[in-house]
Amino acid sequence: MNNDDLIQFNPILAKALADVEAADSNPEFTKEILRELVAVAIKTGMPPDKIYAVIKTGRILTIDNMKFLSNDEINEWQDAAREYDELANPNTPGAGENNAISRKFRVEIEVTVKDEKYAIEVARKIYAEGSGASEPVDDTSEEERFVPPEEYIEDIEAALIELVHTNPLLEQAGIEVTELSAGRSEAKEIEKADEN
């Protein structure tokens, strides 16, 4: 399968790329470089919402380059990623017909974290590469500011929530996480200490 075939496999990405190429609206990349970049991103498994954001904004957002971008540039990238999600999952009548028998389940899991600092670092990276979060600059402003990873994920509990919430396997399986919380399993730690 050549690069063009690979890109055409996702009609949303193909249309966005064709629109940008036709308008010459992306001065950051030549048409050939952008097309090659999109093909490589698809081959390496980059999430399509992020590929779409690269096409639409002409920039790649990473945890390392965020410090060089303005809040407006970050927000533009996040908006583009959300736009892809809206295009890929439209809330149209009949879209939920296959889910007519949806049921809620409660799953409780207990995890052991070997390296909290590393888990937090990974969660922050995933957050930064995703659509992130924004909040009003102040109580009176409609202007939004991007919430940086270090502020959004301050501890291991927030990291665990981010890691579960952004797990692509759940979405691929048609599972929506509707409630999520995390906390230390203090009682079990005390029981283990008493046993020793």
Description:
With 196 residues, this protein is mainly α. The chain is built from 10 helices and 2 strands. A two-stranded antiparallel sheet has the order 1-2. The longest helix is centred in the middle third of the chain and has 18 residues, at 71-88. The chain is globular and about 60 Å long.
Describe this protein with a few key phrases.
196 residues; mainly alpha; 2 domains
Distance between the termini: 59 Å
Number of domains: 2
- Structural class by secondary-structure content: mainly alpha
> Helicity level, as a percent range?
40-55%
Please outline the major beta sheet. 2 strands, antiparallel
Instruction: Indicate the mean pLDDT.
Output: 79
Gross geometry: globular
> Regions with pLDDT < 50 over 5+ consecutive residues?
92-100
Count every beta strand, where a strand is a DSSP E run of 2 or more residues: 2
Q: Enumerate the strands of the largest sheet in spatial order, edge to edge or round the barrel.
A: 1-2
Order of helices and strands: HHHHHHEEHHHH
Helix/strand layout:
Layout: H1 3-8, H2 11-23, H3 31-43, H4 48-57, H5 71-88, H6 116-129, E1 134-136, E2 144-146, H7 149-152, H8 156-165, H9 168-172, H10 186-195
Helix pairs in contact: 2-4, 3-4, 4-5, 6-8
Please provide a brief summary of the model.
α3 runs antiparallel to α4 and α4 packs across α5. 53% of the residues lie in helices and 3% in strands. With 196 residues, it is mainly α.
